[in-house]
Amino acid sequence: MNLDIDILQKKLCSLMCAQIKIRQKNSKLAQIETPFFFADGDPYLIYLKEMPTGIMRLTDMGHTMMHLSYDNDIHKFREGTREKIFDQIKAETSVNEMQGEFYIDTQIENLGYNIFRIGQALTKVNDLTLLNRARAESTFYDDLQERLFKIVGEENLVKDYYYDGMDNSKDYPIDYKIDGKHSPLFVFGIPNRDKARLTTITLERLTRVNPDFESLLIFSDQATLPKQDLARLSNIGGEMIASLDAESDLNRKLLKRMSINL
Questions:
Q1: What would the DSSP string read from start to end of the chain?
Q2: Against a cut of 0.85, is the pTM above it?
């Protein structure tokens, strides 16, 4: 390497220092401006205050969660898979959280390092909101179950149902069984191509042994499936819901087929 590392180090430090500014808010509180921003362009709000013990505290004073709550249900951060990811973020970054406030207590000599560490934590928490729209596969089933419980009621669902009349039924699970008005209703959640193919096989096997059932196929995003896989599934499957965001459609099709009135 032909670069002078010492010169590069000084240049890098000067550039990074230019991105970090401290502004006095009052006698006990200063705001730290950083190059970290939310997706809408608003900056992260990070503050510095001196604690009674003389230690310094970097804190967002609850601003991050408040900002995200405008467009997201932040209560979901503490449920299911999202809660596990949320706890993992705090553990990985050593950031504390209390009632929605993220903070790090630090010695003055570690202040620079911890500014970037809390910035990293807030960025990862911000990224949790992407799960709401993109609906990552790890949260799809959490969201599906929550929606079904809300519409049908937990007591009216049999989760991970196996049809005993089918050979090797344990290899072909049915996500949910609901007592239908005329026949059982089998509900399948489909977040990806692999699950679409397994559902096609399961429905084909069910039809061979007992065609007296209905099926409801609920997709994470139907538009992302390959056309051939969707066509095969359409030929054997029943009603379809293109995504969990189609709440009224899902509600109508479920209640129409239930054996009881809620």
A1: --S-HHHHHHHHHHHHHHH-EEEEEETTEEEEE-S-B-TTSPBP-EEEEE-TTS-EEEE-TTHHHHHHHTTS-GGGGGSHHHHHHHHHHHHHHT-EEETTEEEEEE-GGGHHHHHHHHHHHHHHHHHTTHHHHH--HHHHHHHHHHHHHHHH-GGG-EEEE--TTSTTGGGS-EEEEE-BSSS-EEEEEE-SHHHHHHHHHHHHHHHHH----EEEEEES-GGGS-HHHHHHHHHH--EEES-TT-HHHHHHHHHHHBSS--
A2: no
